[in-house]
């Protein structure tokens, strides 16, 4: 029997156009920015790079790219990280791009033009031999995401959905998910308003992880709550930190780590990603995560428990 230890990421790749500015513009406001750079990005590609480079897992990716110069750095970044990419070429669409304003306090505002990403279809999913986990996001067409999740579930592959960007999800899609990863805004879009614990309770039957930025993360898995404080770092750019979390978490699961240990590794990886510019360029090496797990200082567990409404 073929062993299953490979992660398949199906999703988006974008070339990120990043401008640093004192603050993110308000509607109608023009802000004089500073440095401008381009970085490989896109939620799917970011997560695939994190899974391979930081997580150390065998990683494949389904991705759609145009036939243009923007595709080249995206392909090179995936290849350099060790990701085995199945590329769907879309000659009549541009490669996806994202326009990012990065503020002095490390926050960002992002606008995405999906381009070729919007042309992925259900039939593009590669065969699943050797795949233990399928990692999905919502920058691909929803009908394709649903079809991929169903195919994986039927093949005995565990399905992890990072429900970003935020949008309501059908019960049909939720029924195919083993693990749901969301931030607070994404949780509200799916489960409605209210505290974290109350919203998660509405998603019975799914293991749910809620990422909480500098506070850390909490999870409800196998019927119990798990709390993972963040690691203290000096953040300069939070772009892609959530994607790094997702990729490293799923890589850890694929390698046999327990859920709580996978959370801890993902938290360390996302903290390190905040200390560098860019998305894929900020993904740490596997050894850097190991070092932070030994020497890092976590934030308050008591404050995290209180914030999640678990007291």
UniProtKB/TrEMBL annotation:
Q: Which cofactor does it need?
A: Mg(2+)
Q: Which Pfam families match?
A: PfkB
Q: What pathway or pathways are given for this protein in its record?
A: Carbohydrate metabolism; D-ribose degradation; D-ribose 5-phosphate from beta-D-ribopyranose: step 2/2
Q: What is its main location?
A: cytoplasm
Q: Which locations, inside or outside the cell, does it occupy?
A: Cytoplasm
As its record notes, the protein acts as a catalyst of:
D-ribose + ATP = D-ribose 5-phosphate + ADP + H(+)
Q: How is its activity regulated?
A: Activated by a monovalent cation that binds near, but not in, the active site. The most likely occupant of the site in vivo is potassium. Ion binding induces a conformational change that may alter substrate affinity.
The EC designation for this entry is 2.7.1.15
The enzyme class is transferase
Which residues act catalytically here?
243
Q: Cofactor note, please?
A: Requires a divalent cation, most likely magnesium in vivo, as an electrophilic catalyst to aid phosphoryl group transfer. It is the chelate of the metal and the nucleotide that is the actual substrate.
Can you name one GO molecular function term for this protein? Answer: ribokinase activity
Write out the GO cellular component annotations: cytosol
Which positions does UniProt annotate for K(+) binding? 237, 239, 273, 276, 278
The residues the record assigns to binding substrate are: 14-16, 42-46, 139, 243
Q: Assembly state and interactors?
A: Homodimer.
Record's family? Answer: Belongs to the carbohydrate kinase PfkB family. Ribokinase subfamily.
Q: Describe the task this protein carries out.
A: Catalyzes the phosphorylation of ribose at O-5 in a reaction requiring ATP and magnesium. The resulting D-ribose-5-phosphate can then be used either for sythesis of nucleotides, histidine, and tryptophan, or as a component of the pentose phosphate pathway.
The protein, known as: Ribokinase
Organism expressing this protein natively: Agrilutibacter terrestris
């Amino acid at each position: 029997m073929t062993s299953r230890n490979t992660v398949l990421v199906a999703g988006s790749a974008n070339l990120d156009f990043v401008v640093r500015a004192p603050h993110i513009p308000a509607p109608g406001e023009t802000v004089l920015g500073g440095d401008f750079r381009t970085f490989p990005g896109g939620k799917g590609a970011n997560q695939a790079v994190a899974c391979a480079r930081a997580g150390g897992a065998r990683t494949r990716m389904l991705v759609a790219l145009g036939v243009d110069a923007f595709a080249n750095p995206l392909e090179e970044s995936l290849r350099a990280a060790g990701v085995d990419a199945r590329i769907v070429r879309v000659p009549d669409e541009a490669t996806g791009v994202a326009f990012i304003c990065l503020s002095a306090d490390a926050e960002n505002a992002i606008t995405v033009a999906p381009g070729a990403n919007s042309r992925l279809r259900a039939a593009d999913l590669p065969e699943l031999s050797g795949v233990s986990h399928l990692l999905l996001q919502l920058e691909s067409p929803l009908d394709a995401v649903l079809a991929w999740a169903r195919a994986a579930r039927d093949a005995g592959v565990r399905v992890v959905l990072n429900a970003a960007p935020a949008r309501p999800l059908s019960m049909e899609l939720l029924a195919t998910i083993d693990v749901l990863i969301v931030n607070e805004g994404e949780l509200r879009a799916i489960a409605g308003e209210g505290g974290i614990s109350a919203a998660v309770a509405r998603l019975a039957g799914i293991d749910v992880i809620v990422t909480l930025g500098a506070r850390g993360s909490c999870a409800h898995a196998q019927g119990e709550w798990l709390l993972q404080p963040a690691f203290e770092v000096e953040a300069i750019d939070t772009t892609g930190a959530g994607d790094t979390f997702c990729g490293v978490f799923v890589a850890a699961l694929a390698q046999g780590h327990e859920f709580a240990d996978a959370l801890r590794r993902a938290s360390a990886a996302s903290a390190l990603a905040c200390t560098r510019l860019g998305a894929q360029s900020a993904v740490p090496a596997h050894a850097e995560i190991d070092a932070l797990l030994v020497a890092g200082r976590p934030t308050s567990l008591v404050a995290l428990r209180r914030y999640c409404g678990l007291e």
